[in-house]
Amino acid sequence: MADIKLTLVVACALVDTDKRVLIAQRPQGKALAGLWEFPGGKVEPGERPEQTLIRELHEEIGIDVSEPCLAPLTFASYAYDSFHLLMPLYICRRWEGLVVAREGQQLAWVRANKLRDYPMPPADIPLIPHLIDLLM
Ligand code: 9L3
Ligand code: MG
């Protein structure tokens, strides 16, 4: 069997006081451009997943999250041709700062039962029922 490259990516469902979830549209020029995702990114060498998420949330949407505010909910797994993605999903309900699109991406706050209206990468889609269970 061919070697399989396993890529660890972490994602976060940011939930506001109206129980809406933040999704971001992947910018042009990136893989999967135009699809809507739960914000996050690749775990870099030497990082713990929570540190990655704190870094990514700051870089992408300008907020500051403290580690105890990140609660793991479930994880996604998806086999692309060239790598397998393993992606824990965290829930975060408390953060500091205002959510702003720092990378020119579109952002949307969406009720969990409306997430299916937004085209998402294949790894993110199976996460939606978990959010519906938690939030609806
Ligand atoms: N990815 C899928 N769903 C997500 C995130 C944050 C990432 N919610 C996929 C897209 C890329 C890979 O993970 O194939 C790495 O993400 P990035 O570093 O390009 O954001
Ligand atoms: Mg990212």
TrEMBL record:
Example GO molecular function term?
A: metal ion binding
Q: What CDD domains does this protein map onto?
A: NUDIX_MutT_NudA_like
A single BP term in Gene Ontology: DNA repair
Q: Nudix hydrolase domain: from which residue to which, for each copy?
A: 5-133
Q: Which residues form a coiled coil?
A: none
Name the domain of life.
Bacteria
Q: Which UniProt keywords apply?
A: DNA damage, DNA repair, DNA replication, Hydrolase, Magnesium, Metal-binding, Mutator protein
Q: Which InterPro entries match?
A: MutT-like, MutY_C, Nudix_hydrolase, NUDIX_hydrolase-like_dom_sf, NUDIX_hydrolase_CS, NUDIX_hydrolase_dom
Q: Which SUPFAM superfamilies match?
A: Nudix
First-level EC class: hydrolase
Substrates-to-products reaction catalysed: 8-oxo-GTP + H2O = 8-oxo-GMP + diphosphate + H(+); 8-oxo-dGTP + H2O = 8-oxo-dGMP + diphosphate + H(+)
UniProt-listed Enzyme Commission number(s): 3.6.1.55
Q: Which cofactor does it need?
A: Mg(2+)
Q: Which family does it belong to?
A: Belongs to the Nudix hydrolase family.
What protein is this chain from? 8-oxo-dGTP diphosphatase
Organism expressing this protein natively: Bradyrhizobium lablabi
